[in-house]
Amino acid sequence: MGNRACVIFYDSRRISPTVYLHWHGESVPAWLAQLKHLMNGRFDDAEYAAARFVGICHQQIEGNMSLGVSSNTLTLAEIRDESRMQAESPGNAGIVVLDTRDFTWKAYGGYLASTGRA
After folding, report:
1. Of 33, 43, 70, 106, which has fewest CB within 10 angstroms of its CB?
2. pTM summary value
3. Where in the chain are the domains?
4. What is the dihedral of CA 77, 47, 20, 69, to 10 degrees?
5. DSSP letter at 26?
6. Burial 79-104 (b: 16+ CB within 10 A, else e)
């Protein structure tokens, strides 16, 4: 049900809350590219990247559903653990983990995983 994706940002010190999209998993790569451009000059900041990503999503998703933010208890080690990330996947597009130091991302447990890193 849906076209779900979860997106998590991390930097050299922190991990952002999880951004949940219910219907827009296919849009995640394009929205991350837009975010990279927006964050130019402020890389390595997971908290600000997550906030700006939510803003991009909010501009594209009408109404008061299909976009959420939730806390998580992930560590920097877990965010790099493929089996752990696959277990976190909601299915559909999967879970996307973005390193804000260089804005590369990797998807797990969904169809975006086949696209590799961006």
Report:
1. 70
2. 0.95
3. 5-112
4. 110
5. G
6. beeeeebeebbbebbbbbbbbbeebe
